[in-house]
TrEMBL record:
Pfam family for this entry, one: IMD
GO cellular component: actin cytoskeleton; cytoplasmic side of plasma membrane
InterPro entries: AH/BAR_dom_sf (IPR027267), I-BAR_dom (IPR013606), MTSS1/MTSS2 (IPR030127)
Entry's Gene Ontology BP terms: cell projection assembly; plasma membrane organization
PROSITE patterns from the UniProt entry: IMD
Stretch list, region Disordered: 124-152
Lineage top rank: taxon: Eukaryota
Molecular-function GO terms, alphabetical: actin binding; phospholipid binding
Designated name of the protein: IMD domain-containing protein
Start and end residues of each IMD domain: 1-152
Length: 152
């Protein structure tokens, strides 16, 4: 391989690496925005769960009142109680989803975003040093080769 092709390859690889690091750096705002929106969704879902619990408690009181009366309203009361139980299972699933959203997505993502920032910055610094050193070595070897060719 001649020196010019080595320099071209070095430049191409260095440019590719730099493009990847720049893409990583440009993606931080997108990930942070996603994390913020997920946190807001979690907060709203928690509020929804609390409202659902309050509603279902009041609904259960209506069902109990209807069940404890005489006549045909007993049947209505038991039907309302069954409906309330079904909705409580939905509320439990929503609560589970809300907790999983925070524990399995938001918290790990927020932790990793900081790590990604530090890693990308360190990679960029290390690459810049190594790239300059490699370019200097190539130029030195190139000039040494030229001198040897002139002597020969």
């Amino acid at each position: 391989m001649d020196v010019e092709s080595v320099e071209k390859e070095c430049g191409a690889l260095g440019g590719l690496f730099q493009a990847i690091v720049n893409d990583m750096k440009c993606s931080y705002p997108v990930w942070e925005d996603f994390s913020a929106k997920a946190t807001k969704l979690h907060s709203q879902l928690r509020t929804t769960v609390l409202a659902a619990v309050a509603f279902l408690d009041a609904f259960q009181k209506v069902a109990d009142m209807a069940t404890n009366t005489r006549g045909a309203t007993r049947d209505i009361g038991s039907a309302l109680t069954r409906m309330c139980m079904r909705h409580r299972s939905i509320e439990a699933k929503l609560r589970h989803f809300t907790n999983a959203l925070m524990e399995s997505l938001i918290t790990p993502l927020q932790d990793r975003i900081e790590d990604w920032k530090k890693t990308a910055n360190q990679l960029d610094k290390d690459h810049a040093k190594e790239y300059k050193r490699s370019r200097h070595e190539i130029k030195k070897k190139s000039s040494d080769t030229m001198k040897l060719q002139k002597k020969a």
